[in-house]
RNA sequence: GCGCCCAUAGUUCAAUGGAUAGAACACCAGCCUUCUAAGCUGGUUACGUAGGUCCGAUUCCUACUGGGCGUACCA
C-alpha cells in the first residue's frame, strides 16, 4: 500500500466512518480535507459542530501524531496538515526502492484481459484517426498491466472488406501510374484507395465491377485473388512499419481473411437456430425486440459483411486464450454495432465479459475527415511534417549539436508529441486536430515534460558523485512540500486512470508535476546549496525524474535524457 | 423521425454534488556573468437557455436551443 493510502486509511479508522477524503483548494487550508456532510446527515448533527468535534478527536489521537502535524475545522470541513518530514522520507524512500515499479498496484488480480485495438485495414490509408486508436489502446494496455492485469494486446487487420476490391479496381486500371509513385507500396495503396472512392462516386457501372472483384477475391481463385494476395502483403508490411515507428507491440495478430470461413459456419448454424433470418434477400439479425434494430450479416449478392468475421473472432478469442474479459477499442460511432454483435454472442450462449471501449474520433479544424472529400491527414504526412518542424526547432536551439543528434532527438520529440496529443484529451471528447497547435513545444505538451525530465537528468549529471545521506527534514520549502505531496499522489492517480480507462488523468498529472518541479527549480538552489541540503534536494529531483519516466512509460512514451 | 454524445475564457481543454470554476495557447509587460529561457513571474477574459431535486448543482433530472454521430446490405 502506498504512503498516502496508508495515511488516509489511518484517518478513516480514527474517525470511524468512511468519510470522503479530498484535497483542499489551496495548500494554506491544509493537505487533506474531510467533508463531514454525509456523516452529519447520518448522525442528524450540525455540520460545523461535527467538524469541530472530529477535529478535536483527531488532534488528540496519538496514533496519528507521526502522520499529522495539525488539524483545523473550517466550517463543514476538517482540514489536516501532514507531517512532511515523515511523508517526504516515506515517499522518497519508496520511490528510490521501487524505481520503475512505483505506482504499480495489484487491483487487477492477474485476470486475463484481451485488448483488441489498432483497427488496421489493408488497401487503405493510415490516418490520424487510426493514430488515436493505437495510442489509446496502447496506453490502456499499459495501464491495465501496471494495475495487475494479465494483458494480451492484439491487432485485428481487416483485409477482406469491400474496400480491398475498390482499391484493386482502381489499381488495376492505373497500374503504371501507381507503380511510378514514390514511397512504400503500402502507402501507395492508401492513395489508390482515396482515388477509388472519388472515382466510384455516383458511378453505378463501376460499382458493379467492384462487386465482381469482391466475389472473385472471396472465391480465392483467379487474377484478382492473386493481386489481392500480393497487395495485401504490401499493406501488412506498411502497418508493421507504423507499429514499429510507434513502438507498439502486439502479442497476436488476427486477419479477417483467416477467420471468415469459421464465421460462415457460425452463420449457417445461427440461421438454423433462427437467430439469423433472411430478409429482403440478405441475411440479417433482427434485434428490434432488444431495441437494437437490424444488423445485416450477408449481402443480398451473397458476399459477407463485417460481422461474419467478427463473430468467429470473438469465439476464437475465448477458445484459444485464458481470458476473463475481451475488450474492443473502437471509436464511438460503432457503439450500436458492438451492442448488436454482443447481443448475438449472448444469444449464442456466451456469458463472458465483453466490453466495447469507445473513444471519440479525430476531426480537423476544416471538418470531419473523409476519404471522399480528401480531407484527411495521413500518418505519413503528419510524421514527415512534424519531424521536419522538430528538426528546425532543435537546430535553432541547439546550434552545437551534430545533425545526427538533432535528428535523433527531433524524432523522439515528434513521437512523444503525437502520442501525448492523442492522449491528453479525455476519450469521450472529439479531438479537433490542429497540426499547427500540435507542432508547438510550449505549455501542456510532451516537450514540456521531456524538457523537465532532461533538466533533471542534467542536474543529476552535474551534481557530482559524492554521496551524502539525505536528511528529509531539510525539505521544508513550500515548493518542496508541494512536490512531495504531488509524488505521493502518483499511485492513486494511476489507479483512477485505470478504473476510468482514462490516460488523460496521467497526462494531466505529469504536467502538473512538472509545473511543480519547475517552480521548485526556479525558487530553490539544488547543486549550490550546502551538502546536506543538496543531498535531500537532489533526491527529491531524482524522484520527480523517476515519476516522469514512469508516467510517460504508461503513455507509451520514452523519457528523453537530453533535449 | 428515433437513439447516443457534446456545449465552460478569443481558441483548445480541466474540474469524485462541496470551499475563491483551473490550465495551456494567443496577447501585453518583465526575468539568463547563477543547476537546460523548449523555462519562470505578473496582467485581461468563461459555466448555451429555462425549470426541477438537494443544506449545497458546472456536475444529477426534464424541456428547449445549437453542434456531432449513428440508425439494413460501409467498417
Automatic annotation (TrEMBL):
Domain DALR anticodon binding stretches: 449-563
Arginyl tRNA synthetase N-terminal domain residues: 5-82
The reaction(s) this protein catalyses: tRNA(Arg) + L-arginine + ATP = L-arginyl-tRNA(Arg) + AMP + diphosphate
Family matches, as Gene3D superfamilies: Arginyl tRNA synthetase N-terminal domain, HUPs, Isoleucyl-tRNA Synthetase, Domain 1
Membrane spanning residue stretches: none
Domain of life, per lineage: Bacteria
Entry keywords, A to Z: Aminoacyl-tRNA synthetase, ATP-binding, Cytoplasm, Ligase, Nucleotide-binding, Protein biosynthesis
Assembly: Monomer.
UniProt similarity note: Belongs to the class-I aminoacyl-tRNA synthetase family.
Name of the molecule in the record: Arginine--tRNA ligase
Species of the source: Candidatus Falkowbacteria bacterium CG10_big_fil_rev_8_21_14_0_10_39_9
Lineage of origin: Bacteria, Candidatus Falkowiibacteriota
Amino acid at each position: 500500500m502506498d504512503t498516502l493510502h496508508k495515511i488516509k486509511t489511518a484517518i478513516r479508522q480514527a474517525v470511524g466512518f468512511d468519510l470522503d477524503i479530498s484535497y483542499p483548494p489551496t495548500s494554506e487550508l491544509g493537505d487533506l480535507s474531510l467533508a463531514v456532510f454525509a456523516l452529519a446527515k447520518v448522525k442528524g448533527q450540525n455540520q460545523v459542530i461535527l467538524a469541530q468535534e472530529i477535529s478535536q478527536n483527531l488532534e488528540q489521537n496519538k496514533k496519528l501524531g507521526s502522520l499529522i502535524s495539525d488539524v483545523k475545522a473550517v466550517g463543514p470541513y476538517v482540514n489536516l496538515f501532514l507531517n512532511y518530514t515523515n511523508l517526504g522520507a516515506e515517499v522518497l524512500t519508496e520511490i528510490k526502492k521501487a524505481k520503475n515499479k512505483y505506482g504499480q498496484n495489484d487491483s487487477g488480480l492477474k485476470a486475463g484481459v484481451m485488448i483488441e485495438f489498432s483497427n488496421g485495414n489493408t488497401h487503405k490509408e493510415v490516418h490520424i484517426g487510426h493514430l488515436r486508436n493505437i495510442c489509446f489502446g496502447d496506453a490502456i494496455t499499459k495501464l491495465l498491466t501496471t494495475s495487475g492485469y494479465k494483458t494480451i494486446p492484439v491487432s485485428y487487420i481487416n483485409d477482406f472488406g469491400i474496400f480491398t476490391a475498390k482499391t484493386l479496381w482502381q489499381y488495376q486500371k492505373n497500374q503504371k501510374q501507381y507503380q511510378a509513385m514514390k514511397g512504400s507500396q503500402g502507402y501507395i495503396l492508401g492513395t489508390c484507395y482515396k482515388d477509388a472512392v472519388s472515382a466510384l462516386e455516383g458511378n453505378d457501372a463501376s460499382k458493379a465491377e467492384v462487386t465482381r472483384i469482391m466475389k472473385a477475391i472471396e472465391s480465392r481463385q483467379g487474377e484478382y485473388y492473386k493481386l489481392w494476395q500480393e497487395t495485401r502483403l504490401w499493406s501488412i508490411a506498411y502497418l508493421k512499419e507504423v507499429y514499429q515507428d510507434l513502438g507498439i507491440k502486439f502479442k497476436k495478430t488476427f486477419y479477417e481473411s483467416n477467420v471468415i470461413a469459421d464465421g460462415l459456419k457460425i452463420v449457417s448454424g445461427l440461421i438454423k437456430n433462427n437467430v439469423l433470418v433472411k430478409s429482403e434477400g440478405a441475411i440479417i439479425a433482427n434485434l428490434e425486440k432488444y431495441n437494437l434494430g437490424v444488423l445485416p450479416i450477408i449481402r443480398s449478392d451473397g458476399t459477407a459483411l463485417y460481422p461474419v468475421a467478427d463473430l468467429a473472432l470473438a469465439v476464437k478469442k475465448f477458445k484459444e486464450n485464458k481470458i476473463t474479459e475481451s475488450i474492443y477499442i473502437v471509436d464511438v460511432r460503432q457503439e450500436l454495432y458492438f451492442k448488436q454483435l454482443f447481443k448475438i454472442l449472448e444469444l449464442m450462449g456466451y456469458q463472458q465479459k465483453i466490453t466495447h471501449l469507445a473513444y471519440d474520433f479525430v476531426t480537423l479544424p476544416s471538418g470531419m475527415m473523409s476519404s471522399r472529400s480528401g480531407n484527411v491527414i495521413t500518418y505519413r504526412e503528419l510524421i514527415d511534417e512534424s519531424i521536419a518542424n522538430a528538426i528546425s526547432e532543435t537546430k535553432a536551439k541547439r546550434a552545437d549539436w551534430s545533425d545526427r543528434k538533432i535528428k535523433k532527438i527531433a524524432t523522439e520529440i515528434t513521437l512523444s508529441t503525437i502520442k501525448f496529443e492523442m492522449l491528453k484529451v479525455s476519450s469521450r471528447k472529439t479531438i479537433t486536430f490542429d497540426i499547427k497547435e500540435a507542432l508547438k513545444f510550449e505549455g501542456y505538451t510532451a516537450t514540456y515534460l521531456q524538457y523537465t525530465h532532461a533538466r533533471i537528468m542534467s542536474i543529476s549529471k552535474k551534481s557530482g558523485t559524492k554521496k551524502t545521506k539525505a536528511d528529509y527534514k531539510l525539505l521544508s520549502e513550500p515548493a518542496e512540500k508541494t512536490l512531495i505531496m504531488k509524488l505521493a499522489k502518483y499511485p492513486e492517480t494511476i489507479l483512477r486512470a485505470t478504473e476510468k480507462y482514462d490516460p488523460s488523468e496521467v497526462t494531466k498529472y505529469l504536467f502538473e508535476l512538472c509545473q511543480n518541479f519547475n517552480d521548485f527549480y526556479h525558487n530553490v538552489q539544488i547543486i549550490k546549496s550546502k551538502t546536506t541540503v543538496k543531498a535531500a534536494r537532489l533526491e527529491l529531483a531524482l524522484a520527480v525524474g523517476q515519476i516522469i519516466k514512469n508516467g510517460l512509460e504508461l503513455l507509451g512514451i520514452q523519457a528523453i535524457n537530453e533535449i
